[in-house]
Structure formats: C-alpha cells, structure tokens
Specification:
Elements lengths: L14 H18 L11 H14 L4 H16 L7 H6 L8 E5 L11 H12 L7 E6 L5 H14 L3 E4 H8 L3 E4 L3 E4 L3 E5 L3 E2 H9 L25 H33 L3 H5 L6 E9 L1 H13 L1 E6 L5 E7 L10 H19 L8 E6 L4 H7 L29 H9 L9 E2 L28
Parallel strand pairs: 1-2, 2-3, 6-8, 7-8, 8-11, 11-12
Antiparallel strand pairs: 4-5, 9-10
Helix pairs in contact: 1-3, 2-5, 3-5, 5-6, 8-9, 9-12, 11-12
Length: 454
C-alpha cells in the first residue's frame, strides 16, 4: 500500500479509504494464494456505512462514490493467475471467482440490501458485462421489491448476476456468511474450505459395468471387480455394482485430496488470508460431482426402458441399445429426479467414510464449470444414449435437449437435489432467448416473487 502512496496503518476515515484498504487486503491475499478461486466476501454491506456517512456530511457526492466503486471493480477485473493449459481445459475462460455476496436477509428478519448493493450491480451497466467479479445476489422472497426488480432488469441487460438461495443457507450459516469460490457458502472469517476436482460418476458407472476396465484405453484402471455379465442392464444389479465402484472412487478421491491439501499447506500456506480468520477455523473438505444427469438418466433408462449391452471383441461393454422411452432428469418427474437424489446421497455416504485432512467436514458440489467438456471427451458411450466424447451437462443441469417441459420444470428437478448432501453448492446455468421475455419494459415490473425453495 505504501508503494502506491496510501497509508493503511490507520483506520479508514471515508469511503474512498475504506475501498482502498479493502482492495489492498485482497491484493495481498490474492498475490500469495495458489488456489482455484479467490473470492471477495461480503464487502458492499460494510463499505456502505462509510458511504452513508460521507453522503450525510457532504464529503463525497453519489456520483463520486459510484466512481470509486467502478474503479474498485475495474481493479478486481484485472486479476490474472498464471495457470497451466490443463487447468484452463477444466476451467475455461480463466476464472478467478472474485465472488461478492450481495443482499440476503438477517436472522432478525431485516433485509441486508444497501445503496452499495445497487452500486455494485450498477457497475455492470457502467463498465459493461463481465464474468468477474462474480456478483452474487443472496436471494430471498423477502428482499425489497425494488431491489428484486433492479436485479431482474440488470440480469436481462447483462446476463452477469449469479443468484443463490439465502433462505436455504441462512439456517446453516447465520446471516454473516459469504460465498467462497463460485457457490460455496461459509461464515466470514470463521470457516474455509479445501477443494479439489470432480468425481466423474458417468465414468464410474462404465467402470462398474466393465469390472474396472477403462472403456476407451481397455486398461485395468479400477479394482478388478466382477463385471456385469448380462445382455440387458438390470437396474438393481447395476446399482449394486455402481455403489461398489463409487466406494473405490471415493477412497481414491479423498486420499488424493488429502495429499494435495497437505502439500499445499506445506509449501504455499496462505498466510494473509488465514491471518484474518479466527484461530480455530472450521474447515470444509469439498469434493465435486460431474455427470450426475447422465447417471440419473442411465438408471432411468434401465428401469423404465430396455437397455442392451454391446460388447467388443474383448467382451468389454462399449455401447448400448435403448428400446422404449424413459423419464429424463430436468422435467420435474420424480421417477428420475429421485434417482438423482439417491446418487448424490450414495456418493456423499461413501465420501464421509474416509478421514479428511485437518478433520475437514466432507461436502460435495454439483457445479456448472467447463469440466463437463473435458470429462465428456474422456468418457465413452453411456447407457442414457449419450455418445462417446459428447460433453456432459454442466453442473446440476439436465443433459442438452432433454428438458422438454419448460424452464420451471427444469429448475424444479435441480431444486430437488439435497442441500444436506451437497453443501458445497448446487448450480444451474440457465439461458433463454431474449424474445421469451417479451418486448416491453413492463416485464421488469412483473411478478418476480421467485421462491428458490420450490
């Protein structure tokens, strides 16, 4: 800070100094850390205290304060990590996840929306849309109506706001929490997470069918379990094989992450960040799932249609023939949505059996990141009809083109996934064509009492 001519050794006296001090703290932390993400926390609510006082005292005008915020956001957009090409294949677009948590409701029932909440979101209009910082609104039906309308308008104009269910997370974390990484909720200054990678459950299903043999390389990668020996896939028999393989996958996954996080703490301990945390930190041990909708649809096909195995000359199952139709995840159909819930629960049950580094609390995420493309390339034909190399659906999304009953039905399927088994976060990337919203600005004043719990 001194090299920039700023003295932050004393408390900030106005909103400009408060923003400067916040940025220098972030800059110190982000230069030292070596993780996948570097979130901001919940700064807008705090900085608003300075802004309100400065407006009242005539120290700065509203235009000047908005300019300070714009400059702060510009600085955050400049963050760049040196990353390997392999990393960028999994996280395309070189994200930093400078996630700022905005809004939400206090445990006493009062909303936490301030003028600074509007100012942060307004930077998307002043500076143009951008993925960073990841401006995240903690959504509740009890947010002020004008703020909800403003969010809706800004989302339509910029497609750059992320929404998370405050009503779901508040009972777990209280109201003084923020979003780490992209969607992971934790209490500010008291909690942190160890995070890493994804478990490719679609690949795990194929390993279960082939007794641990990789369907693409034909090598024995997993344990040499008994392969599926029938010609038609039986739901119960395949589920039993799948759960056995998930247990092995969870063991490899957790042990690998234990090594990674131990070595990361040993050689790249994030001192600046942890200096701002309590002494006794609550740690989460975050895992992740890829291919959930594929696995759910695959088991649905086995249960409600007929899925025949196609083997190569070595007897390895490499393809499938589906006869008949089956319920598909993403259409608010409990027959398949219940399967998705069960798969998440079975996976987390397997993860929880293992010791985690520094006694971290096991969680998992079903996130919308671009690993769906990379994992798709590495995975062969699957029993749901997906072809080898085809990208997975991102995060908790339904597979491409299979959600045929409209947006609400698609989102309803995602909302059924159990938060208790996926406390690291569940995300859905939702896009619609502009014409679907109509041509009149009156859409902004419409009924947006959206309840994310339904």
């Amino acid at each position: 800070a001194a090299s920039y001519g700023c003295d932050i050794s004393k408390p900030a006296t106005n909103v400009k100094e408060a923003i400067q001090a916040t940025y220098f703290g972030y800059l110190c932390s982000v230069k030292e850390q070596n993780g996948a993400a570097m979130s901001l926390g919940r700064t807008s609510t705090f900085i608003d205290c300075y802004a309100e006082r400065d407006l009242k005292n005539g120290t700065f005008t509203e235009e000047q304060i908005q300019e300070f915020v714009d400059h702060f956001i510009m600085k955050l957009r400049c963050v760049k990590f040196a990353r390997t090409p392999e990393y960028n294949q999994i996280f395309a677009g070189d994200p930093v996840w400078v996630t700022e948590s905005i809004g939400g409701i206090g445990v006493d029932g009062r909303h936490m929306v301030t003028k600074m909440s509007f100012r942060y979101l307004h930077t998307l209009e002043n500076l143009g849309a951008a993925p960073e910082p990841n401006l995240t609104v903690l959504w509740s039906t009890r947010l002020p109506q004008n703020f909800k309308k403003f969010c809706a308008k800004t989302s339509i104009n910029t497609s750059s706001i992320q929404y998370e269910n405050d009503d779901l997370m508040r009972p777990v974390h209280g109201d003084d929490y923020g979003i780490a990484c992209c969607v992971s909720s934790m209490v500010i200054g008291k909690e942190m997470q160890f995070f890493g990678a994804r478990a490719n459950l679609a690949k795990c299903l194929l390993y279960a069918l082939n007794g641990g043999i990789d369907e693409k390389t034909k090598k024995q990668v997993g344990p040499k379990y008994r392969p599926y020996d029938g010609d038609v896939l039986d739901y119960d028999k395949v589920m039993e094989l799948f759960i056995d393989m998930v247990e092995w996958q969870a063991d490899v996954y957790v042990n690998t992450l234990n090594i990674i996080h131990y070595m990361h703490d040993k050689y790249c301990y994030e001192r600046a960040e942890m200096a701002l945390h309590d002494r006794d930190v609550k740690r989460y041990f975050a895992t992740g799932i890829a291919g959930l909708s594929i696995v759910a649809d695959s088991f649905s096909a086995m249960k409600y249609a007929k899925v025949e195995c196609i083997r190569d000359e070595d007897g390895i199952i490499t393809d499938f023939k589906i006869t008949g139709d089956f319920p598909k995840y993403g259409n608010d159909d409990d027959r398949v949505d219940a399967i998705a819930k069960e798969v998440v629960h079975k996976f987390m049950t397997a993860i929880r059996r293992h010791h985690t580094y520094r006694n971290g609390i096991p969680t998992t995420s079903i996130l919308t990141i671009t690993s769906n493309v990379t994992y798709g390339k590495a995975t062969g034909n699957t029993p749901d009809g997906r072809r080898a190399g085809q990208p997975f659906a991102p995060g908790a999304n339904p597979m491409h083109g299979r959600d045929t009953h409209g947006a609400i039905a698609s989102l309803s399927s995602v909302s059924k996934l159990p938060f208790n088994d996926a406390q690291d976060g569940i995300s859905n990337t939702f896009t619609i064509i502009p014409g679907a919203l109509g041509k009149e600005d009156q859409v902004f004043a419409g009924d947006i009492e959206l309840d994310l719990n339904k």
